[in-house]
Design the sequence.
C-alpha cells in the first residue's frame, strides 16, 4: 500500500518541483554567477548541483527506514583548493556518516514527505537538463537548465577546556541562514579556501574565539538545501579545541551563545527540551 501512495506523491512532487525550477530561473541564474568555492563531486566526476540528493547519486534510492539516521560514505576533503569528493563507503575506518533531512526528522509521515520532495526535485532537475539539452541540439539556445553547484560549508563544534563545554550559538533573527535557530558556528568555504581554514575563520568571525587548526577533526557531513535561494550545501562538521581569543558575538549573525556541558548534551540526545545552561546574549 505504501507504493500505491508513493507513486502519485512522486509524480505530483516532480511536477511541482519542475514548475518551481522554471519559476526560479532568475534566482538560479544569479546563484550561478555568484559561485563560491570549488563545489562537490561524486564518482565519475559529476559535479553535484541544486536539486540533486547525494544519497540518490550514490545509489541509495530507497525510502528511509524508521531507524536510519545517516548513510556511510567516503568523503575526501582536499588538501589544496579543489572540490570535495563524496564516494561510496568502503567499509573501513576512513568511512564517515552523511546525514540528510529525510532521515533525521522524526515521524514516518514527515520522513516520507521529505523523501518524496527529494525524489521530485531530483527528477525535475534531470528533466530540466534533458529538455534544455534537446532544445540546444535543435539550435534553440536556452539558459533555463542553470542549476547552481552544491556549495561547501564548514561547521565547528568548539570545545572550551576551562568550561568543559561546547559552544553553541543562536543565529540573529534576520539577515542570514537559519535565522533564530541554535547552531554551531560555521559558514561557506570561499574561493580557494580550504574547509579547515574556513572552519577556523568562521568561529573567529562569529564568536571571537580562536580554534587550533591541528586540533580539528572531521566527524561527519550533512546535506542541507534552501529552496528559496536555490542552493544546496554539503555541511562538513569538525570538532576543534578553542586555544584563545575573547568571546565577542558578531551582532549581524549571532544573537546568543550557550555553553553545552556533557550533562546538557546527554539530555539533548535523550530528547529532553528542558533544563538550563550558562550563556551570553547581546543587549
Sequence:
Amino acid at each position: 500500500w505504501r507504493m500505491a501512495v508513493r507513486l502519485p506523491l512522486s509524480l505530483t512532487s516532480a511536477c511541482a518541483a519542475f514548475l518551481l525550477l522554471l519559476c526560479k530561473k532568475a534566482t538560479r541564474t544569479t546563484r550561478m554567477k555568484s559561485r563560491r568555492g570549488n563545489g562537490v563531486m561524486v564518482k565519475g566526476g559529476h559535479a553535484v548541483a541544486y536539486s540533486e540528493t547525494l544519497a540518490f547519486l550514490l545509489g541509495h534510492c530507497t525510502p528511509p527506514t524508521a531507524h536510519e539516521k545517516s548513510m556511510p560514505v567516503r568523503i575526501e576533503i582536499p588538501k589544496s583548493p579543489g572540490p570535495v569528493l563524496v564516494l561510496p563507503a568502503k567499509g573501513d575506518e576512513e568511512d564517515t556518516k552523511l546525514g540528510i533531512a529525510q532521515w533525521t526528522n522524526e515521524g514516518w509521515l514527515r520522513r516520507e514527505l521529505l523523501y518524496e520532495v527529494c525524489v521530485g526535485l531530483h527528477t525535475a532537475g534531470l528533466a530540466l537538463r534533458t529538455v534544455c539539452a534537446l532544445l540546444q541540439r535543435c539550435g534553440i539556445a536556452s539558459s533555463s537548465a542553470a542549476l547552481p553547484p552544491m556549495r561547501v560549508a564548514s561547521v565547528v563544534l568548539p570545545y572550551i577546556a576551562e568550561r568543559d563545554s561546547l559552544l553553541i550559538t543562536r543565529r540573529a533573527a534576520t539577515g542570514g541562514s537559519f535565522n533564530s535557530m541554535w547552531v554551531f558556528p560555521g559558514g561557506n568555504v570561499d574561493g580557494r579556501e580550504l574547509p579547515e581554514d574556513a572552519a577556523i575563520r568562521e568561529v573567529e568571525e562569529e564568536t571571537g574565539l580562536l580554534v587550533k587548526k591541528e586540533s580539528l577533526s572531521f566527524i561527519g557531513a550533512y546535506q542541507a538545501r534552501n529552496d528559496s535561494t536555490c542552493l544546496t550545501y554539503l555541511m562538513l562538521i569538525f570538532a576543534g579545541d578553542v586555544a584563545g581569543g575573547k568571546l565577542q558575538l558578531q551582532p549581524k549573525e549571532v544573537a546568543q551563545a550557550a555553553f553545552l556541558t556533557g550533562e546538557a548534551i546527554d539530555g539533548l540526545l535523550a530528547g529532553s527540551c528542558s533544563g538550563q545552561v550558562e550563556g551570553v546574549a547581546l543587549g
In short: The chain has a mean pLDDT of 88. Residues 205 and 250 are 7 Å apart (CA to CA). The first strand starts at residue 40 and ends at 42.
